[in-house]
TrEMBL record:
Catalytic class of the enzyme: transferase
Gene (name only): pyrB
Cited function: Catalyzes the condensation of carbamoyl phosphate and aspartate to form carbamoyl aspartate and inorganic phosphate, the committed step in the de novo pyrimidine nucleotide biosynthesis pathway.
Residues reported to bind carbamoyl phosphate: 95-96, 145, 173, 176, 301-302
Assembly information from the UniProt record: Heterododecamer (2C3:3R2) of six catalytic PyrB chains organized as two trimers (C3), and six regulatory PyrI chains organized as three dimers (R2).
Domain Aspartate/ornithine carbamoyltransferase carbamoyl-P binding: 43-186
Protein name: Aspartate carbamoyltransferase
Keyword line: Pyrimidine biosynthesis, Transferase
Catalytic activity from the UniProt record: carbamoyl phosphate + L-aspartate = N-carbamoyl-L-aspartate + phosphate + H(+)
Amino acid sequence: MLTWSGIVRRSGLCITPCHHGRELFHLGGMIMIKSRQVSLRNKDILGLENMTVAEMELVLDTAKEMKNIVGRDIKKVPTLRGKSMINLFFEPSTRTRTSFELAGKYLGADVVNITASASSVVKGESLRDTLMTVEAMGVDIIVMRHAAEGAAQYASNVVSPIIINAGDGAHEHPTQGLLDMFTIKQYKGRLHGLKVAILGDILHSRVARSNIWGLQKMGAEVHIAGPQTLLPKFMEQAGVKVHNRIEDALADADVVNILRIQLERQKKGLFPSAREYARIFGVNQARLALAKPDALVMHPGPMNRGLEIAPDVAYSDQSAVQEQVKNGLAIRMAILFLVLMGGKNIETTA
């Protein structure tokens, strides 16, 4: 059954998610959206492993409308007025924390940032007690990054506010996976059938896991490559093409997603030296030429230029690195809107 899912005014006064199967037509300067009702099944965003294709498409389509808001001179709308969110980060972050903060503020929410170094965690407070303290303050949503895998699921189990996983150890980073897919779709027009090469430290990368889960569900062909010591076992059983030579993964690739090498891995003997890594696995112009001429170059940041990616690749016309940052804001606005408002029609007059 078709239902009205809302109205999007060109001026940005009204917004609502657009999603798969939508019908758009113009009426009196407004874009009316008539579509099958779709919503997120769970209140929390913990990972892409358990997210359906319909849910991911809902987020991606909603992000298109949010990106229109970001592009305006006056970006702030009161869609989430009266809602409160806390960015609870136990690990350093520039892009993720800042974009979540701006996403909340642009949508009118009250946003507070908490870092481990400036909290009672340094006094020995447990994660559970920190979460319960935040819950007692009546916060609506907690955006959390933690070094422990499964920390976001744990938070979801012990407190009632909405939990958004901003990265839990080497497990998942769902909003990064979504923004990467959004960026690919922006440039390529589709995800299905594309060859995506993910290169570098796959074993310790939450970005890689979320990308793999999401891209495979959306019909992309995923190839990974890196030192054998940095490749997880059993990836082939999950349908991923695994290569020890970076050249094999790059061959005819539509998208090249290069992961940051964590230099502390060298100290653990997982690769010989930074110079040796760059020589064998670094993406330079010669190696990039193995991919398709219009291959898209991506990197979640921060980049180690001259190590996993050459400067002339990082800043080439094929690079979408800065667009990824812009799209991260739109994706996180979409996520906040969907989890807090449930896709309701919300008047957003500034």
